[in-house]
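Sequence design from tokenized structure. All designs in this work follow the same two-part layout: the structure record, then the generated sequence. An example of the structure record is given first.
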């Protein structure tokens, strides 16, 4: 049990050293993730539609 409390104290000490991002940096990162997710979803959707249409034309 003593090791657990030591671990917790060390974790708190390490977290105090962390340079946390600002609110604007977080929003910028979220924006990049959302935009790239939408772009990849559109690309994958178009590929899926294309392959489905192609296979239906061949075997349909």
């Amino acid at each position: 049990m003593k090791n657990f409390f030591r671990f917790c104290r060390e974790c708190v000490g390490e977290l105090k050293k962390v340079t946390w991002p600002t609110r604007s940096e977080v929003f910028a990162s979220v924006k990049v993730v959302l935009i790239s997710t939408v772009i990849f979803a559109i690309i994958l959707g178009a590929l899926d539609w294309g392959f489905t249409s192609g296979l239906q034309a061949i075997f349909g």
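The chain has a mean pLDDT of 96. We note this feature because it recurs in several other targets discussed in the main text.
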